[in-house]
């Protein structure tokens, strides 16, 4: 009875959204090759061929940009496109002669570069986009912004995105606090926002807006104790690891510190090496200041 009813609960079934050539040849691919940076040729056992053309995006897109991309997908990609987990957008082209026009049109209309691929079979590696977290645009606990830093880093590394110039696979990620939504611990190079001071309870705000037991229970290190006599919360600063969980539960526990918050850079996670087990990152540098004198926008 409800089979055809469309709702916005949960994601749609993914196979309904596949390009017809991918749907028809699902699981039956003969080989693929990267014919040039940003363009992957996939050949199916049936003989079907499809070209995946990849572009870097800034991840946070206006609805106007998304509409431009959808228009381009209608023109070149039979109305299909997809975003990768590293914030690249991909189009699907069945006519090889249209690839150059597609790349030109994407660059003219939205300014996104074609690239982000690698071909291990040829020993050619490019840099994919940086996966990153919400930053000040959305989340409440960031120690640093996300998109601005990613833009600055990718501006420096642009030549590695649009070409295969790296000697090995390299993945870069950014997380704006130690909760590390971006799985940065498993990237080759990681930028992590670090708070360096414990929360300072605002007794008045705690009394007005917070549930004390659930806030105390949210601390993973047991650094919080209820002070029921004064209807507030006390922090054992020796036990605090500055994770910000208590601020998630209670806006009366802010831990932003414009003077001391900053970024750490970690390297060596997910070693791309066949002869040893994957490893998590090691700290390389700690203490980049982000100079947000007024603190993040709350
Ligand atoms: S890493 Fe931290 S601040 Fe960034 S989105 Fe995740 S929880 Fe929020
Ligand atoms: S910042 Fe994290 S470790 Fe520190 S008191 Fe809050 S929840 Fe506990």
What does this structure look like?
This protein has 298 residues and is α+β, with helices and mostly antiparallel strands. The protein contains eight helices and 14 strands. It has helices spanning 20-24, 63-76, 99-109, 147-156, 158-161, 203-209, 212-217, 245-249; strands at residues 29-36, 39-44, 49-56, 81-83, 88-93, 118-119, 124-125, 131-132, 172-175, 189-194, 224-227, 232-235, 262-267, 282-289. The protein has a five-stranded antiparallel β-sheet, with helices on one face. Helix 2 (63-76) runs antiparallel to helix 3. The chain is elongated, with a radius of gyration of 23 Å. The two termini are 46 Å apart. The relative contact order is 0.10. Mean pLDDT is 89; it is low at 293-298. Residues 133-134, 139, 141-142, 175-177, 179-181 line the site of one iron/sulfur cluster (SF4).
């Amino acid at each position: 009875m409800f089979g055809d009813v469309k709702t916005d609960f949960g994601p749609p079934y993914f196979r309904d959204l596949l390009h017809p050539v991918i749907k028809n040849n699902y699981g039956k691919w003969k080989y693929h090759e990267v014919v040039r940076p940003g363009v992957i040729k996939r050949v199916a056992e049936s003989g079907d061929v499809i070209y995946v053309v990849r572009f870097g995006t800034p991840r946070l897109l206006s609805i106007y940009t998304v509409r431009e991309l959808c228009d381009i997908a209608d023109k070149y990609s039979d109305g299909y496109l997809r975003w990768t987990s590293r914030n690249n957008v991909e189009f699907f082209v069945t006519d090889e002669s249209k690839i150059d026009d597609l790349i030109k049109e994407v660059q003219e209309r939205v300014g996104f570069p074609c690239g982000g691929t690698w071909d291990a079979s040829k020993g050619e590696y490019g840099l994919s986009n940086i996966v990153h977290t919400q930053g000040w645009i959305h989340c409440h606990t960031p120690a640093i912004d996300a998109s601005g830093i990613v833009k600055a880093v990718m501006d420096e590394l642009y030549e590695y995105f649009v070409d295969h110039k790296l000697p090995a696979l390299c993945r870069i990620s950014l997380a704006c606090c130690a909760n590390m939504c971006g799985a940065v611990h498993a990237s080759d190079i990681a930028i992590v926002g670090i708070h360096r001071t414990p929360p300072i309870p605002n007794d008045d705000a705690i009394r007005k807006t917070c549930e004390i037991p659930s806030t105390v229970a949210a601390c993973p290190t047991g650094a919080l104790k209820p002070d029921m006599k004064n209807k507030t919360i006390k922090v054992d600063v020796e036990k605090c690891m500055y994770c910000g969980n208590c601020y998630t539960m209670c806006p009366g526990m802010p831990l932003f510190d414009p003077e001391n918050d900053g970024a750490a850079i970690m390297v060596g996670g997910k070693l791309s090496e066949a002869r040893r087990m994957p490893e998590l990152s090691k700290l390389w540098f700690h203490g980049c200041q982000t100079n947000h004198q007024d603190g993040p926008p709350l």
